[in-house]
Design goal:
Shape: globular
Strand order of the largest sheet: 4-3-5
Oligomer: single chain
Number of strands: 5
Number of helices: 10
Largest sheet: 3 strands, mixed
Order of helices and strands: EEEHHEHHHEHHHHH
Distance between the termini: 66 Å
Strand content: under 5%
Radius of gyration: 22 Å
Length: 317
């Protein structure tokens, strides 16, 4: 299709992570292992939280949705990365590119809101333990989760719709391993100033709108912890929120830098994208299972129960 003297692009070429066949083979093995670990870790968290009645609490309700989001976020990009690492030509259609960018924005955006809701949960548990049941009612938890999905979907819809109205001429090479909305702007022959302003404003509103409640919650949490007289008491209280704080640092640090820095296809930009879109979904289950006593105990109980059931079934045969 042509527009004036320009050819309209309907397909993009992804440069990927490397053009060296040997490095691509190593990256394929690495990303395949990461994806399998992500699937196993997050599915295990979902199974354990659902199966163990001791974990039917607000914090683990949010954690189960975090595991679901990590599964979705990883599955939006990693299978395509694996396919491209085995292909000579790494192409994606315009519609496929917009769809991938849309789902990245939804899953990553929802995770921001969910981490913010989890910070409020930790604030209620540590600063107001006697009122925790009233502050974190099931209805509120459900509303926070659905609100997270709704606001992130609205943000993704607006930015993707604006990107869908752009024309792409001649240049069709994306200096990235996946299609994210900011990567499309340098390729457009349309005026992208509105797109840039909307993306910047929505990223700042989205980011600071979720980060400020986290900062507020942890400011009160730190104040409460410091008011505890015993060292062991302070350490025990802090351990209940250390997993969440680690997850927030991993996700927000790399996610903010990816969407606020200029799109250039630089190695640093690719590292930030891999960090929040590939590595974080893998390490979140490890963070919460290795640093949370309740989850570790639930994993042992669940594995013990399934092993006992399997042993009884084998005996009956």
């Amino acid at each position: 299709m042509t527009l004036g003297n320009h050819t309209i692009v309907t397909q993009f070429l992804l440069l990927g992570l490397s053009t060296d066949p040997h490095i691509q083979a190593l990256l394929f093995v690495l990303f395949l292992e990461i994806y399998l670990l992500t699937l196993m870790g997050n599915l295990m968290m979902l199974l354990v939280i659902r199966a163990d009645s001791h974990l039917h609490m607000p914090m683990f309700f949010f954690l189960s949705h975090l595991s679901l989001l990590d599964l979705c976020l990883s599955s939006v990009t990693v299978p395509k990365i694996l396919k491209d690492l085995l292909s000579e030509t790494k192409t994606i259609s315009l519609r496929g590119c917009l769809a991938q960018g849309f789902f990245v924005l939804i899953t990553a955006g929802t995770e921001c809101f969910l981490l913010s809701a989890m910070a409020y949960d930790r604030y209620a548990a540590i600063c107001h333990p006697l009122l925790y049941g009233q502050m974190m009612k099931k209805q509120l938890c459900v509303q926070l989760v659905w609100g997270s999905w709704g606001l992130a979907s609205l943000n993704a819809f607006i930015n993707t719709l604006l990107a869908a109205n752009l024309d792409f001429c001649e240049n069709h090479t994306i200096s990235h391993y996946s299609c994210e909305v900011p990567s499309l702007f340098p390729l457009s022959c349309s005026d992208v100033s509105i797109n840039l302003i909307v993306l910047l404003c929505s990223s700042l509103m989205h980011g600071f709108g979720t980060l400020l409640p986290i900062v507020f919650s942890y400011a009160h949490i730190v104040s409460t912890i410091l008011s505890i007289s015993s060292t062991s008491g302070r350490s025990k209280t802090f351990s209940t929120c250390s997993s969440h704080l680690t997850a927030v640092s991993f996700f927000f640090g790399s996610g903010f830098l990816r969407y606020l820095m200029p799109t250039s296809g630089s190695p640093l930009e690719l590292i930030f994208s891999v960090q929040y879109g590939v590595v974080t979904p893998m390490v979140n289950p490890l963070i919460y299972s290795l640093r949370n006593k309740e989850v570790k105990a639930a994993v042992r109980r669940t594995l013990g129960k399934y092993m006992f059931t399997a042993f009884q079934t084998a005996e009956n045969r």
